[in-house]
């Protein structure tokens, strides 16, 4: 049994922390908005700040929204760095900048501790079911030490490479997810506007080469109009910003990623930052002046 510190107990962090507690580990917890009662009920020790977590825990996990939040949790006043002692391991499971991740790792290493970046994919459903995909950057030694913890939170666990490579892998994942959401949205919108039943079109496509997890889950969301997150548009905007920023630095053009980001931006402009990212289809519907599944959809001859 390890004493595991967990910082950030939001929509993803809380179920991940609870799965660690179910696995028999002692939780040392902190969250800006307070440690949720069910996490305390699972045996967690609530702390006043991140530094206290680091002092009491053997392994410290951060799961917060963005790069500045990780920086503050690690190196701000009352941050993890203040409470670390040599030999401990810090794991950041947030989705943040690969470039700054490498800088964070260097600072933690300088304190005599090991650092892993281990962003996840699978959303709230995967967090609750302990079926997350975990993409890890860091040393093989640190990875092997904490792999049993990862196995309590996820199923597909891969050491991608050195520090920063886990975050690079996650950004690549978010590019693929965004473009697939756009593709499914365009396909179902096309079907609906042509007069076909989008639900039956989706059912047919699920049996062919176009089948995907996005078509299965988010295609159903688009048809049933269930856009409660899930994974919020504002978080996917953040991830695509990371992709586009890094691409500029590397001299790359990512034209379809840029298009997906503009569609997310259009949703945000309509008050949709908090919608599930499958609601990207709403921007396409606005352009078409047609909603998927609308009863008034005429058959186009």
What does this protein look like?
By secondary structure, the protein is α/β, with parallel strands linked by helices. Helices cover 53% and strands 13% of the residues. It has 14 helices and 9 strands. Strand 2, helix 2 and strand 3 form a beta-alpha-beta unit. Helix 13 (255-269) packs across helix 14 (281-288). The protein is elongated and about 65 Å long. It starts with a strand and ends in a 13-residue tail after the last helix.
Overall pLDDT score? 95
Can you count the helices?
Answer: 14
The geometry reads as elongated
Task: Give the DSSP E fraction (strand runs of 2 or more residues).
Answer: 5-15%
Low-confidence segments, ≥5 residues, pLDDT <50? none
For the sheet with most strands, the description reads: 6 strands, parallel
Number of strands: 9
Order of helix and strand elements from N to C terminus: EHEHEHEHHEHEEHEHEHHHHHH
Can you lay out the helices and strands and say which pair or pack?
Layout: E1 3-7, H1 13-22, E2 26-30, H2 37-41, E3 45-46, H3 50-56, E4 59-62, H4 67-75, H5 80-83, E5 89-92, H6 98-110, E6 114-117, E7 120-121, H7 123-129, E8 132-137, H8 140-153, E9 154-161, H9 165-193, H10 198-205, H11 213-224, H12 233-250, H13 255-269, H14 281-288
Parallel strand pairs: 1-2, 1-4, 2-3, 4-5, 5-6, 8-9
Antiparallel strand pairs: 7-8
Helix pairs in contact: 1-7, 9-10, 9-11, 9-12, 9-13, 9-14, 10-11, 12-13, 13-14
For the structure shown, list the relevant keywords.
alpha/beta, 13% strand, single chain, three-stranded mixed β-sheet, 301 residues, 53% helix, elongated, 9 strands
